[in-house]
Structure formats: structure tokens, C-alpha cells
What does this fold into?
Amino acid sequence: MEKKTMADVAYDYLLQAETPRSFKEIYDHLVSEMNIPEAQISRKRSKCYSELSMDSRFLSMADNTWGLRRNFKFDEVHLEPLDLDDEDEEEEMAEVSEETMSLDLPSEKEEY
It folds into this structure.
């Protein structure tokens, strides 16, 4: 019998649940299903969170809930790149402008 990873067990759980679940619910299920010893529960929690975050099958949602990416339409989980960059770009330009103003650059008539 093949040993399943925490991500695989979480995937099966969410597939069966059919709706997003909190990380706590998912992890509680993993602890029970995988018989994680009491002494390792706290340590393995962060490993589980990392596995879910790195696995493209999962989708992290608001309020620390997780769902399966396959259960959502593309438009529900992807934002236009311009929507993400516009605000950051404006802030960067303002910072660059402030930095440029504070530089002691020679004028066109001055030489080094």
C-alpha cells in the first residue's frame, strides 16, 4: 500500500467534502486519518500548511479556508495582472521620483 502525503489526504478529504473547509478542519482530519502522534501534532501543522500552499491543486481562500482549485472557475481564482500591478507601480514611481529629487546631480551647465 502506497503511503499518502498530507496533501494527498487533504485532497481526498476536500474532494469528498465538495466545499471549502477551514485549515483547522482539514488538519484535524489529517491528524485522525494519518494517526499523527500527539507529540508531533504541533510540528507537523506547519509542514501541512506548507504542503497545501505549494500544491497547485489547492486554493487558499479568505478566513484561512482551503478548497480544491478544480471546483472553481478560472475567473473566480485569477485576477488580471494589470489589476495587481497598477497600485504597486504608482507607489514605485512616487518613490523613484522622491529619490531622484534628493540626488545631488549636476545641472546641464555643471561638470564634475
Remarks:
- The chain has five helices and three strands.
- The chain has a mean pLDDT of 76.
- The radius of gyration is 24 Å.
- Residues 13 and 29 are 8 Å apart (CA to CA).
